Structure formats: C-alpha cells, structure tokens
From TrEMBL:
The keyword GTP-binding does not apply. This is Hypoxanthine phosphoribosyltransferase. It is found in: Cytoplasm. Coiled coil: none annotated. Keywords: Cytoplasm, Glycosyltransferase, Magnesium, Metal-binding, Nucleotide-binding, Purine salvage, Transferase. Belongs to the purine/pyrimidine phosphoribosyltransferase family. InterPro entries: HGPRT (IPR050408), Hxn_phspho_trans (IPR005904), PRTase-like (IPR029057), PRTase_dom (IPR000836). It catalyses: IMP + diphosphate = hypoxanthine + 5-phospho-alpha-D-ribose 1-diphosphate; GMP + diphosphate = guanine + 5-phospho-alpha-D-ribose 1-diphosphate. The lineage of its organism: Bacteria, Bacillati, Actinomycetota, Coriobacteriia, Coriobacteriales. The gene is hpt.
Length: 183
C-alpha cells in the first residue's frame, strides 16, 4: 500500500490499478493502429506521466509530440479561456493523431484543441483520456475513443495531476483534502 500524502484524503487508484488501466488502453490502441504510425500528442503538463507509460504499452510504431495549453491558471476551475503555451513541432497533415489527456471534466479545453488540430487536416484524430470525471448534470464536450476509467467529481491529484504544481509525483490517484484548496 502506498504511503498516503498528508494532503490526500483517499486513494482512488493504486499504482497497480493504474498499471492495469494503462496496459488495457495500450492493447486497444495497438490493435486499432497495428498497421499505422500514429502521432501521440501529450497535453502538457498533466498528461506527461500517463503518456510515457501509455507509449510503452503501445506495441505498434508511433511518434510523439507535445502541446501545452492553459485554461486553469492557479485556480481549481477552468477559466474558459484557452491559451496555446507550446504548439506541436510535427506537421500533422495526413497523420493519425491520438491526443493523450490526463483528466477530462468539462472537455471545453480539449474540444478547443481537437478543433484546432482538425484544421491542420490530420488523417484522423482521437482522444485517449486516462480519467473522465463524472460531474452530475454535465456531459463533456468531447467523447474520448479511449477511456481509462471514470472518477467522481472531486479534486483529483497524483500521477501527473496537480494542484498549483504540487502532487504530480504521487504514484497513485488520490482525492485532495478540500482544506488544501479552499484556503
């Protein structure tokens, strides 16, 4: 059992749970792209840990690139304003693209990103989301083709996910204590 960080209320997914989810997603993507060479696009910074593990679980040839977008700032809710902080270095015209995202809640930022990249004429574009947050009354603006698992509507940290650039290095997915972000 992992050592629980003092700011974490509970563990939702253990290291073993995460490994199992990533392996399953890697198998699905490997089967779907067996005869292709997809470009895996990691959405920085949160998805970098998941992307590294997922790439190792995908058994077909692939390439990787990175994008960084900002819509949160220091807060806990999306600001609704999307800013491209780092764009792709790779031309995606005619390429199969898989956008890798750490967590999907409203999907507004990801929807903006998908539309932006579609304008660059890829052969295909799909989304692999490690976590989908189940928010009552909310249907995300994007439906990922590959979904790791669903999580409750709570402030999730660990395995690349952060609050104010902290907790990304936790080896599990946990729920942050409200007292930490309600200061």
């Amino acid at each position: 059992m992992e050592q629980l960080h003092p700011d974490v209320k509970e563990v939702l997914l253990s290291e073993e749970d995460i490994r199992s989810i990533v392996e399953r997603m890697g198998e699905q993507i490997s089967a779907d792209y067996a005869d292709r060479n997809p470009l895996v696009v990691a959405v920085l910074r949160g998805a970098v840990v998941f992307t590294a593990d997922l790439m190792r679980a995908i058994k077909c040839p692939l390439a990787v690139d990175f994008m960084a977008v900002s819509s949160y700032g220091e807060g806990v809710k999306s600001s609704g304003v999307v800013r491209i902080v780092k764009d792709l270095d790779t031309k995606i015209e005619g390429r199969d693209v898989i956008i890798v995202e750490d967590i999907l809640d409203s999907g507004l930022t990801l929807s903006y990103l998908v539309d932006l990249l579609k304008g660059r004429n890829p052969a295909s574009i799909e989304v692999a989301a490690f976590l989908v947050k189940d928010v009552p009354g909310n249907t995300p603006a994007v439906s990922p083709r590959y979904v790791g698992t669903h999580v409750p509507d709570a402030f999730i940290v660990g395995y690349g996910l952060d609050y104010a650039e902290r907790y990304r290095n936790l080896p599990y997915i946990g729920v942050l204590k409200p007292a930490v972000y309600q200061k």
